[in-house]
């Protein structure tokens, strides 16, 4: 059973930074494709960033390019999302996802395992 546990969310002012973490267990982390998604109230789940932990390849959603960085620590089985220059529109619940049927995809339907989410609130 794959377990994903997010942490690091919180409240921050616009222009600030946060780092999210996702601890994975029951999963072959070093041969995997993982991602961060987010969902704001009343909106669809949006792909934020993905990574192939085998070679470090990444993809980003257009709204976060240049501000967010996805990375992984394969020794710690942990996925990260470094978020800089945060904007009010980044406010959402952020989810870690794994077991992608299509690596580096930003479509939520391609991922089989999800964490419970961590809330990020950015005030302007």
- Characterize the overall form: globular
Number of helices: 0
Query: Describe the biggest sheet?
Result: 7 strands, mixed
SSE succession? EEEEEEEEEEE
The unreliable regions are: none
Oligomer: single chain
* Whole-number mean pLDDT: 94
Which percent range fits the helix content?
A: under 10%
Radius of gyration: 13 Å
Broad structural category: mainly beta
Structure in a nutshell:
This protein is an all-beta fold. It has strands at 3-7, 10-13, 18-25, 33-39, 46-52, 58-60, 68-73, 78-83, 92-100, 111-114, 118-123.
Topology:
Layout: E1 3-7, E2 10-13, E3 18-25, E4 33-39, E5 46-52, E6 58-60, E7 68-73, E8 78-83, E9 92-100, E10 111-114, E11 118-123
Parallel strand pairs: 2-11
Antiparallel strand pairs: 1-3, 3-8, 4-5, 4-9, 5-6, 7-8, 9-10, 9-11
Task: Explain the overall architecture.
The chain has strands at residues 3-7, 10-13, 18-25, 33-39, 46-52, 58-60, 68-73, 78-83, 92-100, 111-114, 118-123. The protein has 124 residues and is mainly beta. The N and C termini lie far apart (40 Å). The model has no long low-confidence stretch (mean pLDDT 94).
Structural descriptors:
124 residues, mainly beta, 7-stranded mixed β-sheet, 4-stranded antiparallel β-sheet
């Amino acid at each position: 059973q794959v377990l994903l546990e997010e942490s690091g969310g919180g409240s921050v002012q616009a222009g600030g930074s946060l780092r999210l973490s996702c601890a994975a267990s029951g999963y072959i982390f070093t041969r995997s494709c993982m991602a961060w998604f987010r969902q704001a109230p009343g909106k669809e789940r949006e792909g934020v960033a993905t990574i192939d932990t085998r070679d470090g390849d990444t993809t980003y959603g257009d709204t976060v390019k240049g501000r967010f960085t996805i990375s992984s620590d394969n020794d710690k089985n942990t996925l990260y999302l470094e978020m800089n220059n945060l904007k009010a529109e980044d406010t959402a619940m952020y989810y870690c996802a794994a077991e992608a049927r299509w690596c580096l995809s930003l479509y939520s339907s391609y991922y089989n395992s999800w964490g419970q989410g961590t809330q990020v609130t950015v005030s302007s």
